[in-house]
Amino acid sequence: AQSVAQPEDQVNVAEGNPLTVKCTYSVSGNPYLFWYVQYPNRGLQFLLKYITGDNLVKGSYGFEAEFNKSQTSFHLKKPSALVSDSALYFCAVRDMGRAGGFKTIFGAGTRLFVKA
Amino acid sequence: DSGVTQTPKHLITATGQRVTLRCSPRSGDLSVYWYQQSLDQGLQFLIQYYNGEERAKGNILERFSAQQFPDLHSELNLSSLELGDSALYFCASSVQGDQPQHFGDGTRLSIL
Q1: In angstroms, rounded to a whole number, what is the distance separating the alpha carbons of residues B48 and B68?
Q2: What are A75-90's pLDDT values in tens digits?
Q3: Minimal C-alpha gap between B66 and chain A (Å)
Q4: How far apart are CA B60 and CA B62, in angstroms?
Q5: Which run of H or of E encompasses A78?
Q6: Pick from B53, B58, B98: which is nearest to A94 by CB?
């Protein structure tokens, strides 16, 4: 079965510094990987996805993620953090359902705090 | 605004009761997904429907059921409620199953 792991419960960075939120995955076959963000009392918002192609994926709000097949990682990055980036970040992988559908398996989430 | 509407936003009920959560997907989206988010279990996939048909099943209890109607809205039915069912329940939708999902703001269910 597919799975993702987010090894850090929390990441703290200063505003203006680069940020990295880590994710590793375990899949059989080609990975379909996603990053979502959740703000308080809101649903998740899609940031970016990797299906195939360039290992560096650019997404919303200046975020990007680097796919590394040899390290089975898909880390989320941003060159310069903003206080407004403070939120809960989820890495996810797509898995196939028995009836041909798709289920998305989410990591436990990493809380990002950006200090002014 | 994701375009996904969930009602009600909050629901308070007692153990043993039954509730129905409703989701209207984003216009044009055929796939609907249900998730449960709790502090101890994280975000758990429950079930996916595509154009009215069940397509994928996750960690959904037998006390829970869902359906997607011809107008594509979906309902999640939770019965014989237990204290541990207290959680945020999210609905998401996508055009097709392998596309990014758009999430509603959830229904917060509290069991007393």
Answers
A1: 9
A2: 999 999 999 999 999 9
A3: 15
A4: 7
A5: strand A73-78
A6: B98
What is the helix, strand, coil percentage profile of chain A, to 5? 5, 55, 40
Can you tell me the distance from the alpha carbon of A88 to that of B33, in angstroms, rounded to the nearest whole number?
A: 20
3-class DSSP state for residue A7? coil
Chain Cα centroid distance, residue B36 = 7
Q: In the block, which residue shows the tokens 């009602």?
A: B7
Place of tokens 């006390």: B63
What count of residues does chain A have? 116
Would you give per-residue pLDDT tens digits along chain B (112 residues)? 889 999 999 999 999 999 999 999 999 999 999 999 998 888 999 999 999 999 988 889 999 999 999 999 999 999 999 999 999 999 999 987 678 899 999 999 999 9
How do strand B31-38 and strand B87-94 relate by DSSP bridges? antiparallel
In terms of DSSP bridges, do strands A87-96 and A102-106 run parallel, antiparallel, or are they unpaired? antiparallel
**Measured torsion, CA atoms of residues B64, B68, B69, B70, in degrees rounded to the nearest 10:** -160
Residue from the list A43, A46, A96 with its beta carbon closest to the beta carbon of B90: A43
